[in-house]
Fold this sequence. Notes:
The protein is of the alpha+beta class.
Amino acid sequence: MKTTLFILCFLFFGIIGYGQVTTKIIEVDLSKPHKNSIRICGDPLLCNDVDSCKCKEESKGTIINECVCKSKWLSVKSREMVSVKLVNGNPFKYNYKIDTKNISFFNDQNITADKVKEQARTEADNKSSVDNHKEPIKDIIKKNEELIQNIDNLNIEVESLYEILKQKNALVEADYSERKEFLDRAKEQLKKNYELLNSFENVEEKSKYIQVKESLLVTKIKAEKSIATIIEKFFSVDLEIYTLPIDLQGKNIDVVEFKLRRFDRETKDEDLSFASTPYNIWIRNGLKIDVSAGIFFTSLYDEEYDKRDDPATAGNKIITLKNSGDYDMAFGSTINTYIRMNSWIVPTLNFGAVITQDEKLQVLLGVGAILGKQERIIFSAGVSMGKVDRIADDYQVGSSYNLGDSGTIPTQSQFKFGSFFGITYNLSKVKKISLDKGIEEN
């Protein structure tokens, strides 16, 4: 009973494990050179913190924390989904495209100007309800003038940082770390404005009431605009952006290919030197079938016979076998079935057919090795099968026979097994899937 339960549990969890589909994140760092800018991390749902999913050095390039460390080619498994993550771009200076699709770094803004203004208003009201003291109008005017100056100074700092960021080719988080300080200062300035407005309602001197009230309201608009500007410039963008995952399962493809393009936001001109070559993410695992054609050498061929006079018996001929070598040349093609591997050399199982020089059809079954990635040559060897001509059953090579007036040596067709080896070129071009164009051949 325990054995049965164990087997059922094994099968159950085995089926569940097989059915799980993970997403590999192709992370492209836009601040690095093309050849050093890309790595592959695991599904963000599998990590507590995607940013902490760092590569650890391993001598054989094994996968640690769902992150590929060392490999000649970037690759993902055939059953995995693929998503592209762009980091450290500069959306203030450039527009980015993957192939022909625009990539937007602008988010839905979890931090909004309305939320910040509401917080400032609430904090000011709470403070005023506690203090609730009368303040001379001249002090209110002086504080308002200082507040205006502080707002202007902050706006200058904001604009200065924004212009600096626009000049950079790529951004990292440290480049705009001041944004939180800017927003806190802007919020505090609006809070002070609300406090002045609350204090102003308690003044007894009414001679300058309208003039001062208008000045405070102008300052309020100025402070609110400062908050909105900071959020628009620094909090409306994410320097990490994900594309929607692509499902690769069941597709007879070799590589995911995509090209990054960068355009100047002002001139709209494309930077042709940026990531000038496409990124290739090779597919591994999963069954792949393609076709190749080329030249073969088979040990099966029609035997040729000769004859000579028998000195012992007048009119008889001794049958001899011509020496035609060990192999015959043939031309044909094979269907190659193999498991995708991230390697220059991939073993394969071959099944095909050839036509020999005698125009005989032969069937081939063997194994081989595929060399190359884009252009592929296959070396194969195995068993050949087909019909070939052999001497008739009643005759033997080396024996003497009366062949009659025609002198024809009797032969018959027989089905035989032999061996072959061949060199073929892959006719199936590398199949790629583009992030915005679907599956196509390279």
